[in-house]
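Human: Here is a favour to ask of a fellow structure person. Comparing notes only helps if you start from a blank page. Give me a protein, with the fold worked out from its sequence. Please set it down just below, with no commentary around it:

Assistant:
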Amino acid sequence: MPSYCYFKGEYIPLENAKIGVMTHALHYGTGLFEGIRGNWNAAHGQVYIFRLKEHMERMKNGCKVLRLDIPHTADELGRITVEVTKKSGFMEDTYIRPLAYKSSEALGVRLHNLESDFLVFAIPWGRYLDTDACRCSVSTWRRPDDNTFPPSVKATGLYINNALTKTEAIENGFDEGIMLAPDGHVAEGSGENLFLIENGKLVTPATYSSILNGITRDTVITLAKNELGLEVEERLVDRYELYTADECFLTGTAAHLTPVCEIDRRKLGNGGVGPITAKLKDLYFDAIKGNLPKYAHWCTPVF
């Protein structure tokens, strides 16, 4: 079954969606993206797109920063995304990639006097971090300051920072890297937000620590407060806390909720999946698959 793409105003097979070699976004990173999950629920015979509205609202906000003139509302982008996913017809976990970008075939560093376009495609994709509990290292690469580039804008060009971090971690024998903010406090992983469990409390770097204000991050905070009654602290996190925390996990659309068992070759807790992490993980997967009626508004059915 082929993947489909919404490209230049049409629904076409993904293999037929091509851009020219002079496309501005290819040369200067003048685009932004979202990563969205379509989660297959076999019992329901349904794919649920998770928090579609929030993803598209964040994309529209990013478009304001990069001066991307996309003639669709967030709701319209959501309807296009549902249609692409439906046409693709995958009855399995799906990854959906919307992209807004400077589509002019023109060279020159700028954002003005350029055309913009929007595309979205869906592909089958299982888990991003292929491990039940990952081993992390603190990266030598740091997140940019907000005045260098706003970290909550998912700009394509900015992700070279994340790519450097990921490859450094893998080549040094780890599963993932953890970046620090410019001031040396803990920020996030190469593609995930980070959480610690300290004395029964959930601790996560605040949005002013050069992090992406993640939608999965918000999901986990909501579930932790409402379902487990956990106290949640969003604050500056010191590096040493990575080594002394009782539990740690990463969150992101691609990574879902992935436990961390080791950081810089220091085991956390008993070296496995901690009890609070395990409870949150179960809640999270129930939520994204449409199994928690209380959070049904987070799930958009495709079929």
Summary: The helical segments are 24-28, 52-66, 74-88, 160-171, 215-228, 240-244, 275-288.
